[in-house]
Amino acid sequence: MRSAHPAVPQPYFLLSVSFPNHHGGRVVEAIKLSIILPTNGGGKRLTMAVAEALALAGEALSTYELIIVDDASDHETARIADRLAATHQHVALLRFTRRLGYRRALHDAWGAASGQYIAALDLSGPASLRELPQLCAAAPGHAVVLGYRERPTHSLRELIFNTTARRIAPEVRDPALGLALFHADQRDLIATAGPDRLTHIAAYAAAQQRGLPVTQVSIKAQTPLAPSSSPSSALGVGMLVAAGSLWLLRRIMRHP
């Protein structure tokens, strides 16, 4: 069902982050980081995200792993994914022969990743990898780290989505952002069934239910592409609200 390029050498980002210690000072810790990029946002967004990752590598990272998941995308996006994997030695490609969705793409690529932390970017959302170091700085000691914008300008699409997401995790400040960081040991937080756009939010809520440490970090987001607020987009997210509500109801009935 899927194929992949050969494993790449030294397969992870190695990021040095500074964080407080118990004595009031700061220590520096190297974080092994795998970045997973499903192709759900199309070829243009994929190209931009890989460029952002490579820029981070030049600024703060020494070695890295970046896994592109081609989720049975269109011909042009598949061609771009092939080119990126062939051009950059630390970029691997995982390919599905039929579309399985963002949630399954993240779950399966996570199983092939080797980093200590897993960075997940939903390319259909407004976030970019330029904000990733801010999440990494908060990573030590946390199972899940979500970013949030202080004063985001929400499109109609985001407003509708946020309504559904906050039924699952009411305290999440910016559900539509689409950028998350997970400790690699917590792969089972990603259920393989459920609405794709709710993947990060559902994982955050699941971690809370298990008593795992989670946090949210304020970021200075630079939106790469403005999300669409066209009638068709609003209709699509309206369908997501309905699907998400039904999914949430089923979860509640299973776990009263």
Please, could you describe this protein's structure?
The termini are far apart. The protein is globular and about 40 Å long. It has a single domain (2-254), classed as Spore Coat Polysaccharide Biosynthesis Protein SpsA, Chain A. The chain is built from seven helices and nine strands; from the N terminus they run E-E-E-H-E-H-E-H-E-H-E-H-E-H-E-H. Helix 1 packs parallel to helix 2 (75-87) and helix 5 packs parallel to helix 7. Strands 1, 2, 3, 4, 5, 6, 7, 8 and 9 form a nine-stranded mixed β-sheet that branches. The chain has 256 residues and is α/β, with parallel strands linked by helices. This is Glycosyltransferase 2-like domain-containing protein. Residues 34-122 form the Glycosyltransferase 2-like domain. Keywords: Cell membrane, Glycosyltransferase, Lipopolysaccharide biosynthesis, Membrane, Transferase, Transmembrane, Transmembrane helix.
How do the strands and helices of this protein lay out in sequence?
Blueprint: E1 2-4, E2 13-20, E3 26-38, H1 43-59, E4 65-71, H2 75-87, E5 91-96, H3 102-112, E6 117-121, H4 132-136, E7 144-149, H5 156-168, E8 179-183, H6 199-209, E9 214-219, H7 231-254
Parallel strand pairs: 3-4, 3-6, 4-5, 7-9
Antiparallel strand pairs: 1-5, 2-3, 6-8, 7-8
Helix pairs in contact: 1-2, 5-7
Low-confidence stretches: 1-28, 224-235
Just give the CATH class: Alpha Beta
Mean pLDDT: 79
Order of helices and strands: EEEHEHEHEHEHEHEH
Structural class: alpha/beta
Major sheet description: 9 strands, mixed
| Number of DSSP-assigned strands | 9
Estimate the global geometry from the Cα principal axes. Answer: globular
CATH architecture: Alpha-Beta Complex
Rg calculated over all Cα atoms: 18 Å
List the domain count as a whole number.
Answer: 1
Looking at CATH, the homologous superfamily is Spore Coat Polysaccharide Biosynthesis Protein SpsA, Chain A
Number of helices: 7
